[in-house]
Design a protein that fits this description.
By secondary structure, the protein is α+β, with helices and mostly antiparallel strands. The protein has 5 helices and 11 strands. The chain is globular.
């Protein structure tokens, strides 16, 4: 009988000990979920700052009418340089962008290159400052769409807002009243697409779309030889 009581006592104490240990364990604190804004900022902060190149496809259109189409390859995370082909309703030109100048001549010809200031390479999208542009959209109430990759940030800007990132691009947008801006960035924090719907007081909107793919090492770009 004494053996039975001893066994019961041991079992009872064991039960108490296990209960005490269980009740005294700290409850893990759940990690708060990151907001869409924080995810975008984290990606931008973690993005590689080294120069690289990308294939470019840029389209400007009004409604279904294509006003300009530019394709080629540019260097990023560095002064804007590259080689592209620029096609409009009036002309098709080969373009070479260096740090100091932009060179143009009609595609398929061997004449003299026309020389312009480097700033003429810029349109309404600050191509050489895309991470800063993404932050600008985010800081102006940009919404983060997390339903698919790459992530999209969308918001509304004014030309003066864009001037804070790039004065030339902002000035190029000055006739506009507002810009609906969309920026897509991948998991590496690289900007892979930018879209602007540019609104005016007395004319139809214009849409700019810039798509970047095929990321590689930076390429050397030199001034073309004049013939």
């Amino acid at each position: 009988m004494s053996h039975l009581r001893t066994a019961l006592v041991v079992l009872a104490l064991s039960g108490l000990t296990l209960t005490a240990c269980g009740s005294g364990s700290p409850t893990p604190t759940p990690t708060p979920a990151r907001t869409g804004r924080q995810i975008v900022l984290d990606r931008l902060d973690a993005a590689d700052r080294a120069p690289y190149s990308a294939a470019l496809d840029a389209v400007t259109q009004s409604g279904t009418r294509r006003l300009q189409h530019m394709t080629g390859r540019i260097n990023l995370n560095a002064p804007l340089t590259g080689r592209t082909k620029d096609k409009t309703e009036q002309y098709t030109e080969d373009v070479v962008m260096t740090r100091r100048h932009v060179y143009r001549r009609a595609t398929g010809t061997h004449g003299t290159w026309q020389t312009f200031a480097a700033s003429t390479a810029k349109g309404g999208i600050p191509t050489d400052r895309l991470p800063q542009y993404a932050r600008l959209v985010l800081d102006h109430g940009g919404a983060v769409h997390r339903n698919a990759e790459p992530l999209r940030v969308s918001g509304r800007l004014t030309p003066k807002d864009v001037e804070k990132v790039d004065r030339t691009s902002g000035r190029n947008l000055r006739p506009a009243t507002s810009i609906d801006a969309d920026v897509w960035l991948d998991k590496q924090g690289r900007i892979v697409e930018v879209r602007q719907t540019i609104h005016f007081a007395s004319r139809s909107p214009i849409r700019n779309t810039l798509t970047l793919t095929d990321f590689q090492k930076p390429m050397a770009v030199r001034s073309p030889a004049a013939n």
